[in-house]
Amino acid sequence: MKKLCVIPGDGIGPEVVPVAVEAIKLLVPDLEVVHAQAGWACFQQTGCAVPERTLDLMRECGAGLFGAVQSPAHQVAGYRSAILTLRQQLGLSVNLRPVRSWPFISPKSGIDLMVLRENSEGLYVGREHMASPDKAIAERHISRQASELLAQRTAQVAQLRQARRITLVHKANVLPLTCGLFRDSCRAVLEAQGLGSVLDERLVDVAALQLIEQPESFDLVVTTNLFGDVLSDLASYWSGGLATAPSLNWGQGIALAEPVHGSAPDIAGSGRANPIAALLSAALLLRYHWELDDQASRLEGAVDDFLKESKGVDLGAQTTLRVSAGVLERIK
Ligand code: NAI
Ligand code: MG
User: Fold this and answer.
1) 74 falls in which pLDDT band (50, 70, 90)?
2) Residues whose CB is under 5 A from ligand 2 (ion)?
3) Which residues contact 147 (CB under 8 A, 6 or more apart)?
4) Ordered domains of the chain (ranges, CATH)
5) Is the CB of 225 under 6 A from ligand 1?
6) pTM for the full model?
7) Predicted confidence (pLDDT) per residue in 20-63, tens digit
8) Is 68 in the pocket of ligand 1 (CB under 6 A)?
């Protein structure tokens, strides 16, 4: 029996997550669902953004679905973004972020790429300090171990989707120690796995330009935490924007699916939240973590059919409801 820990979070999280849970229930009939709390509202109520109980439930289930959290733009004593805590505490060290063309809503057809982002270190270790009142310093951590783990997952994904190209993205010309270690560690693993012939490299600035100029030329894009965060949001333009961008935080025997978007306070409660990113995140959990490829394809196929038939019309205040009904009906 599969167990799923559901963490809706803040803003539109609680609006889009139940749709994805319904989809998984249809595809995995013996699913057991448990609910847990995390985020800004949780912090305000309990003083803790990710309660111990949430971490325990996640570990017990081995699989989760997360909505989004709101984070204040200024520092709040004791608060750290819930999703960063979850990723670090649960060892969710790789983040898969696929981007593909969808009918009517994508600005261009023929795109099918995936950003594989290191998810536990880089600049996101969150070690900042003021060296003086006029100078702030952030540390960037890169380890051989985390880079190798990312490369091993990349090899696994490459095999599953018969990757034609794997692009390591870094900035080793300016950051030879951190980016150099990242590049060399990834390269060694991928070459040892027989993937040397499809492997290439790009500096991150050139990669950003080429993701705009020739997105269809990319397949797997493998990079560090901050670069992956930025490049995957940028690339999501090609799938139809953040409302369609899914992700999977992937650890050892544990995974947390999560739409790339945030809590979208500007539309929360208006019915406009599009659940497609959450639905496609559920498909990633099915395919990569539970290895239920057929079920993942059925879910993606239902999204594809729905988009074809609705011709990408703006559903306004009916978005959550209509997309939900349309996709779930096509799974049944
Ligand atoms: P956002 O992703 O929440 O919203 C950006 C824009 O995209 C907004 O105009 C929003 O209405 C739209 N949008 C996002 N998801 C949508 C959906 N499913 N359907 C329709 N429209 C959608 O990013 P923003 O505004 O920069 O951040 C808002 C809050 O979310 C902040 O507190 C931020 O810290 C947090 N955040 C959390 C993330 C997470 O939980 N992983 C990721 C990014 C931001
Ligand atoms: Mg982001």
Assistant:
1) confident
2) 229, 233
3) 118, 181, 182, 185, 186
4) 1-98+240-332 (3.40.718.10), 107-239 (3.40.718.10)
5) no
6) 0.95
7) 999 999 999 999 999 999 999 999 999 999 999 999 999 999 99
8) yes
